[in-house]
Write a structure and sequence with these properties.
Blueprint: H1 4-24, H2 26-47, H3 58-74, H4 76-88, H5 90-95, H6 102-129, H7 138-166, H8 169-185, H9 198-206, H10 208-220, H11 233-236, H12 238-265
Helix pairs in contact: 1-6, 2-3, 2-6, 3-6, 3-7, 3-8, 3-10, 4-6, 4-7, 4-8, 6-7, 7-8, 7-10, 7-12, 10-12
Length: 267
């Protein structure tokens, strides 16, 4: 039975290992730096030229949404990386070491959280170039980024379970894309939901991604009196709604992921 101090120490070691791996895998570096820049520029000037938002520039409407979409997609790296480690037999090597079993999962999710931090920094700097501005206090702005990262961290644990159950990176990527792509588009991510069909609007209003985007917009000051907000409870109280989702996802998927890891490692 490992102690809390030993678990923390082992988790830090695995986190460091995963961050070092990021530097040695060019694809991850490209995704974390060049891809966010491309997304911001494309959405800003392609969607921005066709979608007028009354009372606010499209850049300020867009950036919180694209932040949310990118960190959610970035969290899928957790599942793909764990599946890759399983496929290559690295998990079996970890089993032979005197380390806390949960450290592998904690180290993986924390490392991917660090990658999401890098992604947000790159996107924020790009956003400033294309006209995005923060109109709130420093504390509120930091809270906006924290909401994004907390939700991404919770999604990483969902992806961890998927990666441990599926066991191949290709299937993890395909499965996560099928779920996350509509989750991030049936939302207020890129356009207001006022003109959505009734069923889609209801889904969008209760979609946690919409709440993450709305919370970020409010905390960054990227709102306007003329920009209508749905009367649905999540849109009126986005921060507590997001925090509730984060708690539920962590309470459910952290133990499930640890169970799946122990079950997989004991085969």
């Amino acid at each position: 039975m490992t102690t809390l101090a030993e678990t923390v120490s082992d988790s830090v070691t695995i986190t460091r290992r995963n961050l070092i791996k990021v530097k040695r895998v060019p694809d991850l570096i490209v995704f974390a730096t060049l891809s966010p820049i491309m997304f911001v520029l494309l959405f800003r000037y392609v969607f921005g030229s066709a979608i007028p938002i009354e009372g606010i520039s499209y850049a300020e409407f867009l950036l919180p949404g694209i932040f949310a979409q990118t960190v959610v997609f970035g969290s899928t790296i957790t599942g793909a990386s764990l599946a890759d480690d399983l496929q290559k037999g690295l998990i079996d090597r970890f089993r032979s070491l005197p380390m806390a079993r949960s450290a592998v999962l904690v180290g993986r999710t924390v490392a991917d959280l660090g990658l999401n931090v890098l992604t947000i920094v790159v996107m924020a700097l790009t956003g400033l170039v294309v006209g995005w501005r923060i109109h709130s206090s420093v504390g509120e702005a930091l809270a906006g980024f924290l909401i994004l990262l907390l939700f991404a961290f919770a999604i990483s644990w969902v992806m961890a379970l998927v990666g441990l159950l599926v066991r191949t990176p290709e299937v993890v990527n395909n499965a996560s894309f099928i779920v996350i792509f509509p989750l991030t588009f049936i939302a207020n991510t890129f356009v207001p939901t006022d003109n959505f069909p009734t069923v889609l609007k209801t889904i969008a209003d209760w979609n946690p991604v919409s709440a993450v985007v709305q919370a970020a917009r409010e905390l960054f000051g990227n709102t306007a009196p003329s920009l209508e907000t749905s009367n649905a409870w999540p849109m009126q109280h986005p921060v507590p709604y997001v925090l509730a989702w984060v708690v539920v996802l962590l309470v459910v998927f952290v133990p499930l992921s640890v169970w799946a890891y122990l079950r997989t490692a004991s085969r």
